[in-house]
């Protein structure tokens, strides 16, 4: 139920076949050299509790079908080149995740926007 491969100098892409593991609860690839985009198939992991992929050169937009990850409690993707869709359903799902540590970059029509912070 757990795949933990952090700090292993792994490179390449995340295999889409990981989305075919119906009882997977924890998927951790943090602090490696994983690149490419996140496979949409990870959105099939309905029992996933933790998705920890921070500190990797992964890029692109978080898949919209991640909204099906209704059991997700922890999602860490800071230190990546991922951006978040501005889709209302995605934003509602994001607020349901207990601990969200991302890039704070919003994707809109293939452009990324950093949030404005007023102090």
Number of helical segments?
1
Uncertain spans, ≥5 residues at pLDDT below 50? none
Average of the residue pLDDT scores: 92
Instruction: Tell me the major beta sheet.
Output: 5 strands, parallel
Task: Please compute the radius of gyration using only Cα atoms.
Answer: 14 Å
Helical fraction: under 10%
Percentage of residues in DSSP E strands: 25-35%
- Strand element count: 11
* Termini gap: 43 Å
Q: Tell me the strand order in the biggest sheet.
A: 1-3-5-7-9
* SSE order: EEEEEEEEHEEE
The secondary structure category is: mainly beta
Topology:
Layout: E1 2-4, E2 11-12, E3 26-28, E4 33-34, E5 50-52, E6 59-61, E7 74-76, E8 81-85, H1 88-96, E9 99-101, E10 106-108, E11 111-113
Parallel strand pairs: 1-3, 2-4, 3-5, 5-7, 6-8, 7-9, 8-10
Antiparallel strand pairs: 10-11
Structure description:
With 119 residues, the chain is mainly beta. 8% of the residues lie in helices and 28% in strands. The protein contains one helix and eleven strands. The strands form three sheets. The protein has a five-stranded parallel β-sheet with strand order 1-3-5-7-9, with no helix packed on it. Strands 6-8-10-11 form a four-stranded mixed β-sheet, with no helix packed on it. Strands 2-4 form a two-stranded parallel ribbon. A hairpin with a 2-residue loop joins strand 10 and strand 11. The chain is globular. The mean pLDDT is 92.
Main attributes of the structure:
1 helix, 28% strand, 119 residues, mainly beta, 8% helix, five-stranded parallel beta sheet
């Amino acid at each position: 139920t757990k795949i933990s491969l952090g700090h292993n100098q792994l490179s390449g892409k995340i295999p889409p076949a990981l989305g075919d593991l119906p009882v997977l609860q924890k998927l951790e690839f943090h602090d490696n050299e994983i690149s490419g985009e996140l496979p949409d198939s990870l959105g099939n992991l309905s029992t996933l509790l933790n998705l920890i992929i921070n500190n990797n050169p992964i890029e692109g937009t978080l898949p919209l079908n991640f909204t099906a990850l209704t059991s997700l409690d922890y999602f860490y993707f800071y230190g990546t080149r991922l951006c978040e869709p501005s889709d209302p359903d995605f934003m509602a799902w994001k607020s349901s995740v207990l601990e969200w540590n991302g890039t704070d970059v919003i994707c809109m029509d293939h452009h990324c926007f950093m949030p404005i912070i007023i102090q």
